[in-house]
């Protein structure tokens, strides 16, 4: 074909394409698909929730149909030619044309708006605010495949056993398998071997640690208060214990929700249920001299509200503090209705962090009970064993943990709207209520009622938002990419059917059991695919939204640390307990005067999992920050995965990794046989569950010789390989 | 590095270059270009400044003892503060009716411009014609941590990206062998806002400021462990990258190519960081100019280091010097105690920095900014309702002095004026968001267009405020 012909064919093709997608055949215009994006992009900036220029807003139907200040109606349903909006967007008069001083709408966009108005200008509810519905549920793979076929793709082959073992172990427990676990699985010929492995991982104590680490970003967990003095919160770790324990017990997610948001308001709450409310006591306290406590109490309450809506509703409530939501149908006042739910707790930005309750963590309680039994079984009360157990029993101490407590009766707070979001500028008094765009609440007007409303199965967002979070942890991307925003400015799901299927299944069939949900996901063919990618796949689906291959992503900061410790054998598999201080270079904590020193933990505690690392907000652990752990000042839904030279410096030179490399080298030389090659293979297998091929082995051998036999350098290379830093 | 270069070359030629840039997600180095790509719309005019040196006096020095001369305040010294200045105002510590406090040191006029400076600044008074004073800067925050956050992140609460992060996000880095946003800390300890002041907030973590430490490794983990020479490190990285290259051939993930590049950059950084931070190689006359003593943790050393980093095209160089909180509650925190020491520490050093940048032709495209997070009250601080034992002033956000120079800022001028006692700005006030907008403007960035979507909202450094202060632009 010559060039001209190509152009002609191209033009015809484009014209046909335009014909079909503009729906010239009298097809109904889809408001959510076609109209809303045009309004969001071009109109809502001035005629939305923040500004209503000329008294016009396209955000709430009744306002959009009304006459604007000019007396003209922007939209006359059924009659585009009488609608001022259409006149304006078609006008070339600089005084009239819309949008002003911006690119005019394309002819196609104008046509869509005209047809939409002619067809009655119906507004439709945004997809995420409609309860999911599935008539005949299929399964994960069927929904994925449907999308693949539509896009001319198909599933990749299943990943190798070794790859799958490492992937699923890290996904479910955050830890790579040990050598024994590897051998056991690779030699297991039972057809159910993989499912058995999954069951074993789900019942591992480390399962709870892995998911607590995820939840800690949402809970903005830290061991200090933040701001200038950044005083330590020495007992808040008991909340982390609660989290690990809750995940390990597979506490159903509805109860998990209610206990964290309002455990204190349950009838005769248990100690654990009260401890759970520390979730919202992770807000910051500003203890700098001369600060106004009320200002920072208000900031904490606002943070609780925003965090709750982000975590459970994928809704960006923070936008509504100062004005109505620019894009979603949430009015300014509704922010304060929701605020009122959270505005009645006793805490008030005091440096003591009161109210607190002296509590044992659930793990401590369990351990105390088992110790007690053991002690009772020892008859010789003078024996060393008896004394040791007694002293251990005594050393398990309860601690005062900041918790939520409600103000009662006359001392209850009245909530007023803050005009333009300014806490000193009070407007109308409001009562606790849920926003109108969601189903009304039939529960009490307190935190407990609010929490019940979130998880009663009628809320269209909760289950979707939560399954999406867990999906993202496994696949690297959410089905809705913007985990934190299911509103109209968020990214629409590539596969809504799959999302809705999972959401309904999670709340109805799995009865909010996260373990059941995760099991279903990791048993799917979709999950088990190989992550190998080729040019065609990259071309068609670079970020793997369609899931024609398995996930391949960089491990988290915690994973990378834990993996090095497990491979080297330094790892402490102690579960639960206070935060620990692994090695950190001198001077890092020189943040403010007269603070506690960073003293490296001892007796194996320096080798505990990453999630136990002491977290100081104004000086977070440097190597974990380098690997994208947020500073935990505010709730963060999605860690952004980066790839930087500073990360390479950490895994090559941080004394933690140097020590792990030395220990790994030691293992290679003592456990890996006498021959160099077998030692290298052994090390490789410790980190990747498989042996290196000849070329890789050759590289390692070469380095061993050029470095005069520096095995720890070779071991460090193993810990720095891309395949090791990644989950594949 | 031959092997690494070759490898990189091969890897790159395997793909179209543009595709490579799109795929290599987020390295400090790769960022230079991808940063430009993603934020090209925020760039507007030809930039006047390529880089920024921000000298933050953490704790907030008194403008009334340095630059804002108020003879009338001298006359009112010891008299009770008029109620009109107190009504409806919030202070950090002042209670009841405090006394007015006159300037504690004599002032004189200097230079062609006749700018006022106190006797505490024998060096800086010689370069007053080379800077632009902003006399009526104001902020909404009157506590240290929130005000410092406001100055550097545009908001008073924790969680937003620092100015340096915004700038490297918008413009990328100019020297991929050094971090694009570097932080140097001296004085008592780190500033009140802690490392949050140079955190990347919701921006990807590689935009965070990298602290160059005065003790230990300049950059954390830049030094090889004992026994690993530079040659050995090279061998090790070659092995890592060879295996990674093979991995790429087998699994096809472009992220692997990015990782290969990052290891190469890390290797370069291991050389450039110690070289860039070694001020001992500077000649004597330079040490004399700044008052530097290699090996010490000092503001002077950091000023010299700032010049060396500017020479190496580090984009944003942030200095903090802490210890200015002169309440009068003890000798250290008083105008006749700690304050005098701080002024002595900065006078020669910041003057040396201006002279040195100028003589090297660097001042033209380097924007230098000096100031605290707020100013101090014309009243004597009286916590608990009684005057403090030592002379001092409370926090004050309504008016304070900053100065700027270089990077296309007019020099030899004073912008803004306060009333006769230095309480409030009466002309040409500059809000913190205006200052931020102006800094970005000098870098060629439109502050309204440099945005990042987080939690469903487009955030910017200047929140929804800020206007460029055109009057001070040359």
TrEMBL record, chain A:
InterPro entries from the UniProt entry: Cyt_c-like_dom, Cyt_c_Planctomycete-type, DUF1549, DUF1553
Pfam families hit by this protein: PSCyt1, PSCyt2, PSD1
Domain Cytochrome c: 8-121
Keyword Transmembrane: no
Presence of keyword Oxidoreductase: no
Keywords for the protein's UniProt record, in alphabetical order: Heme, Iron, Metal-binding
Protein name per the record: Cytochrome c domain-containing protein
Taxonomic lineage: Bacteria, Pseudomonadati, Bacteroidota, Saprospiria, Saprospirales
From TrEMBL, chain B:
InterPro entries the UniProt entry points to: Alkaline_phosphatase_core_sf (IPR017850), DUF1501 (IPR010869), TAT_signal (IPR006311)
Protein name: Sulfatase
Origin superkingdom: Bacteria
A Pfam family this chain is assigned to: DUF1501
């Amino acid at each position: 074909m010559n060039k001209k012909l190509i152009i002609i064919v191209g033009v015809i093709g484009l014209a046909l394409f335009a014909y079909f997608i503009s729906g010239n055949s009298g097809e109904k215009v889809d408001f959510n698909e076609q109209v809303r994006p045009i309004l969001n992009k071009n109109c809502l900036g001035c005629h939305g929730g923040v500004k209503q220029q000329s008294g016009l807003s396209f955000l709430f139907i009744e306002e959009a149909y009304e006459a604007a200040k000019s007396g003209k109606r922007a939209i006359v349903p059924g009659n585009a030619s009488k609608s001022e909006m259409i006149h304006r967007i078609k006008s070339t008069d600089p005084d009239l044309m819309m949008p002003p001083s911006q690119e005019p709408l394309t002819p196609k966009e104008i046509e869509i708006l005209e047809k939409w108005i002619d067809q009655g200008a119906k507004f439709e509810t945004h997809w995420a605010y409609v309860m999911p519905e599935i008539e005949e549920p299929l399964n994960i793979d069927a929904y994925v495949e449907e999308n693949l076929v539509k896009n001319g793709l198909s599933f990749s082959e299943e990943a190798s056993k070794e790859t799958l073992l490492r992937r699923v172990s890290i996904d479910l427990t955050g830890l790579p398998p040990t050598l024994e676990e590897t051998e056991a699985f690779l030699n297991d010929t039972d057809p159910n071997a993989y499912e058995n492995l999954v069951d074993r991982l789900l019942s591992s104590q480390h399962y709870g640690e892995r998911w607590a680490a995820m939840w800690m970003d949402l809970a903005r967990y830290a061991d200090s208060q933040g701001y200038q003095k950044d005083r330590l919160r020495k007992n808040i770790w008991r909340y982390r214990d609660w989290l690990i324990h809750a995940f390990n017990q597979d506490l159903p997610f509805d109860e998990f929700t209610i206990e964290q948001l309002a455990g204190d308001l349950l009838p005769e709450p248990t100690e654990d249920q009260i401890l759970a409310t520390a979730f919202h006591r992770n807000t910051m306290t500003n203890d700098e001299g001369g600060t106004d406590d009320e200002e920072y109490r208000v900031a904490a309450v606002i943070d609780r509200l925003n965090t709750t809506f982000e975590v459970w509703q994928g809704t960006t409530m923070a936008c509504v503090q100062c004005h109505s939501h620019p894009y979603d149908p949430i009015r300014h006042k509704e922010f304060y209705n929701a605020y009122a739910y959270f505005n009645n707790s006793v805490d008030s930005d005091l440096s003591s962090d009161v109210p607190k309750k002296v509590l044992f963590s659930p793990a401590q309680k369990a351990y105390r009970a088992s110790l007690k039994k053991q002690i009772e079984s020892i008859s010789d009360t003078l024996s060393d064993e008896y004394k040791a157990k007694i002293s251990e029993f005594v050393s398990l101490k309860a601690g005062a943990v900041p918790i939520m407590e409600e103000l009662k009766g006359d001392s209850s707070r009245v909530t007023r709207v803050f005009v333009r979001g300014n806490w000193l500028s009070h407007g109308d008094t409001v009562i606790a209520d849920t926003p109108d765009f969601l189903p009304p609440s039939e529960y009490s007007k307190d935190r407990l009622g609010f929490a019940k409303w979130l998880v009663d199965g009628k809320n269209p967002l909760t289950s979707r938002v939560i399954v999406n979070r867990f999906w993202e942890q496994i696949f690297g991307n959410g089905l809705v990419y913007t985990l934190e925003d299911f509103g109209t400015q968020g990214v629409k799901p590539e596969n809504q059917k799959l999302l809705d299927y999972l959401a309904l299944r999670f709340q109805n069939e799995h009865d909010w059991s996260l373990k059941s949900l995760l099991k279903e996901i990791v048993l799917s063919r979709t999950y088990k695919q190989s992550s190998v990618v080729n040019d065609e796949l990259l071309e068609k689906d670079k970020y793997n939204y369609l899931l024609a291959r398995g996930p391949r992503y960089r491990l988290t900061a915690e994973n990378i640390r834990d993996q090095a410790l497990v491979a080297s054998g330094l790892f402490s598999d102690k579960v639960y307990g206070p935060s620990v201080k692994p090695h950190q270079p001198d001077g890092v904590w020189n943040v403010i005067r007269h603070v506690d020193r960073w003293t490296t933990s001892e007796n194996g505690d320096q080798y505990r999992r990453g999630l136990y690392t002491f977290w100081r907000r104004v000086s977070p652990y440097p190597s974990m920050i380098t690997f994208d752990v947020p500073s935990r000042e505010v709730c963060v839904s999605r860690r952004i995965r980066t790839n930087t030279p500073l990360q390479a410096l950490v895994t090559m030179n941080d004394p933690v990794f140097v020590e792990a490399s030395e220990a790994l080298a030691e293992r290679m030389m003592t456990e890996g046989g006498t021959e160099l090659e077998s030692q290298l293979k052994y090390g490789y297998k410790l980190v990747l569950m498989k042996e290196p091929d000849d070329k890789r082995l050759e590289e390692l051998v070469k380095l061993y010789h050029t470095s005069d036999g520096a095995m720890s350098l070779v071991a460090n290379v193993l810990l720095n390989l891309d395949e090791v830093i990644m989950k594949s | 590095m031959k092997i690494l270069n070759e490898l990189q070359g091969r890897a790159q030629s395997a793909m179209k270059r543009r595709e490579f840039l799109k795929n290599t997600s987020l390295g400090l180095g790769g960022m230079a270009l991808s940063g430009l790509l993603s934020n090209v719309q925020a760039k507007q005019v030809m930039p006047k400044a390529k880089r920024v040196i921000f000298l933050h006096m953490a704790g907030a020095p008194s403008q009334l003892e340095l630059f804002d001369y108020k003879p009338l305040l001298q006359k009112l010294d010891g008299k009770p503060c008029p109620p009109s200045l107190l009504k409806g105002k919030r202070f950090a510590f002042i209670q009841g009716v405090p006394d007015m406090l006159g300037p504690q040191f004599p002032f004189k006029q200097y230079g062609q411009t006749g700018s006022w400076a106190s006797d505490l600044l024998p060096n800086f008074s010689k370069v007053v014609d080379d800077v632009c004073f902003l006399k009526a800067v104001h902020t909404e925050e009157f506590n240290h941590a929130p005000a410092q956050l406001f100055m550097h992140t545009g908001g008073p609460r924790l969680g937003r990206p620092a100015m340096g992060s915004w700038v490297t996000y918008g413009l990328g880095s100019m020297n991929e062998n050094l971090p694009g946003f570097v932080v140097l800390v001296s004085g008592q300890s780190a500033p009140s806002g802690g490392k949050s002041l140079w955190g990347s907030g919701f921006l990807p973590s590689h935009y965070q400021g990298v602290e160059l430490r005065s003790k230990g490794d300049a950059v954390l983990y830049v030094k090889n462990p004992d026994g690993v020479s530079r040659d050995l490190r090279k061998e090790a990285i070659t092995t890592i990258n060879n295996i990674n290259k093979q991995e790429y051939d087998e699994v096809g993930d472009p992220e692997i190519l990015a990782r290969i590049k990052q290891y190469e950059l890390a290797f370069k950084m291991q050389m450039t960081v110690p070289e860039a931070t070694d001020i001992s190689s500077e000649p004597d006359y330079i040490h004399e100019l700044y008052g530097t003593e290699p090996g010490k943790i000092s503001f002077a050393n950091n000023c010299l280091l700032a010049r060396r980093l500017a020479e190496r095209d580090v984009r944003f160089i942030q200095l903090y010097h802490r210890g200015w909180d002169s309440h009068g509650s003890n000798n250290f925190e008083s105008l006749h105690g700690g304050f005098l020491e701080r002024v002595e520490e900065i006078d020669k050093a910041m003057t040396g920095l201006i002279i040195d940048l100028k003589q090297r032709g660097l001042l033209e495209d380097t924007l230098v900014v000096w100031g605290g997070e707020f100013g101090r009250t014309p009243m004597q601080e009286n916590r608990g309702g009684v005057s403090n034992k030592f002379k001092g002033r409370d926090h004050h956000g309504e008016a304070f002095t900053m100065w700027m120079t270089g990077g296309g800022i007019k020099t030899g001028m004073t912008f803004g004026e306060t009333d006769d006692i230095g309480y409030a700005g009466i002309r040409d006030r500059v809000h913190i968001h205006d200052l931020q907008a102006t800094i970005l403007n000098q870098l060629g960035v439109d502050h309204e267009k440099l945005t990042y979507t987080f939690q469903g909202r487009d955030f910017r450094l200047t929140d929804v405020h800020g206007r460029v202060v055109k009057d001070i632009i040359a």
